[in-house]
Design brief:
Arc Repressor Mutant, subunit A; DNA-binding; 194 residues; elongated; 3-stranded antiparallel beta sheet; 8% strand; repeat; disordered N terminus; Transcription factor MYB24 isoform X3; mainly alpha
Length: 194
């Protein structure tokens, strides 16, 4: 029985990690013929991979504009702020982070940020200095506005909002001005440890 979406029939479809040779073949083929029509591309390039596998390999790893390396603290702050507005719409969030893929952002959220929030309780507080809104993380529902203030409160908050001496500021890279400043309910050291 022929599997739908395969670039080749039957057991000849290769699964598992991509080799450097396969990567090279795919990159060269796309450079000469452009991307698209992934099932026929896989077959024409001589790859024994599915079209879906070729598409994902290209989009997530081989594209020249894909950014490699760890997510920076500035990018992490932007992800948190965008997640508060857009929820789990990873493709939309990725549009604000050039070179980062939706899959990479989703994985970072689930393995680092969300894990940190769950470990330290669901009451992490985020302060957006641009809009003067204070957010609270409420489990799976995401970030919700709990207060709109004026001015720029300062301080550090590591536990319940009621025990905070002040609020935290978040507004992209400008919030990283002073070491030890609290960001998104965490100290800079916490943020860098994620």
């Amino acid at each position: 029985m022929e599997e739908k979406g395969c670039s080749s029939e039957g057991p000849e479809v290769r699964k598992g990690p991509w080799t450097m040779e396969e990567d090279s073949i795919l990159v060269n083929y796309i450079a000469n013929h452009s991307e698209g029509a992934w099932n026929s591309l896989a077959k024409s390039a001589g790859l024994k991979r599915t079209g879906k596998s070729c598409r994902l390999r290209w989009l997530n790893y081989l594209r020249p504009d894909v950014r490699r390396g760890n997510i920076t603290p500035e990018e992490q702050l932007l992800i948190i702020e965008l997640h508060s507005k857009l929820g789990n719409r990873w493709s939309k969030i990725a549009k604000y982070l050039p070179g980062r893929t939706d899959n990479e952002i989703k994985n970072h959220w689930r393995t680092k940020i969300y894990k940190h929030i769950n470990k330290h309780g669901d009451s992490s507080v985020l302060y957006n200095r641009d809009t003067s809104e204070q957010y609270e993380h409420q489990g799976d529902t995401g970030w919700v506005v709990i207060e709109t203030t004026t001015g720029y409160p300062t301080g550090t908050c590591f536990s319940q909002p009621s025990t905070c001496q002040g609020n935290t500021e978040v507004s992209g890279a400008s919030s990283l001005a002073e070491p030890g400043t609290s960001l998104v309910g965490w100290s800079l050291e916490d943020l860098l440890s994620i």
